[in-house]
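Hey forum,

I'm writing up a methods section and want to include a predicted complex as supplementary material. The small molecule is NAP. I've pasted the protein sequence and the SMILES. Can someone with a working setup run it? I'll credit the forum in the acknowledgements.
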Amino acid sequence: MKKTWMVTGTSTGFGKELASLLAQKENINLVATARNLTDLDYLDQYDQGQIKKVKLDVVNHDEVKAAVNEATSAFESIDVLVNNAGLGYFGTFEESDLESVKYMMDVNVWGLVDLTRLILPTMRKQKSGAIVNFSSIGGLYSFPTLSFYHATKYAVEGISESLQKEVEPMNIKVMIVEPSGFRTDWAGRSSEKILPEIGDYKFLTEFLNGNIEGAHNEPGDPKVAAEIIFDQVENNYEALPLRLPLGKAASNLAIEKYEESLKNFKSLREISVSADK
Ligand SMILES: NC(=O)c1ccc[n+]([C@@H]2O[C@H](COP(=O)([O-])OP(=O)(O)OC[C@H]3O[C@@H](n4cnc5c(N)ncnc54)[C@H](OP(=O)(O)O)[C@@H]3O)[C@@H](O)[C@H]2O)c1
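Reply by user p_vandermeer:
Happy to help. Structure tokens for the complex are below, copy them as they are.
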């Protein structure tokens, strides 16, 4: 039986690479979603009736509902949901524009939540399915000038980890993807950047400019990332990892974060447990 993958944000970056890969696979139906359907013309060359393009802005609840209806009526099942659509935001905690970061939270977190909650009934009925949530190494490890981006990705991590424990008995898997820098539009057009104006934060200007200048030259190849994600879901379904760091920096920082945390928790062990009386 054919498996159906539904992927958000397939206009550029990881989403586009994943959609291109899926569109060329046998036995895969693809629901490719984007805010602007003309961005998905690249899929036409592969379309033999197995591809459904759906307009979807993940913060528009009516569009989310309609997208789920279109997907479930086009194909028999929804086997894999990839919540990929996302934005970034660079700015110090004090100087970030709260309207903008709340909107990023809407896209990165509430959009993912909305779509996942509407897909889950189908997966529960099927008693199978995989939910692949794009976090970031920034969902585990924090840098300056990214506090609110981290807030969105830490939220994705917490939601995903908890959800995994709820849906495991229904044979539904959850995988969190944690990339480091990849050559997509994320650090470019998808991330607003606010340079520090408060003198005390000027020391972060160089770090922020480094990110702006590094956009599109990151070490990670999103095509390879798409292949790894596909391979994990299709060939490692039973042992799907909850967390999948992608890229050397992601792997290094994930290990560093957990090793440091482990050391810290062990050194505090006596004090920590002493609080239970
Ligand atoms: N690239 C990296 O270095 C990196 C590292 C860690 C994590 N990530 C994560 O990877 C995911 C994909 O980003 P990317 O790197 O592939 O960047 P990208 O090339 O900029 O792609 C972002 C995608 O999200 C879509 N999007 C933005 N707002 C949306 C909304 N309201 N509704 C629906 N779609 C929306 C964009 O659509 P439009 O074309 O309409 O704007 C685009 O398709 C994000 O969650 C990002 O946080 C990226």
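Some notes you might quote in the supplement: The longest strand covers residues 172-179. The helical segments are 13-23, 61-74, 98-126, 147-167, 205-214, 222-235, 248-267, 269-274.
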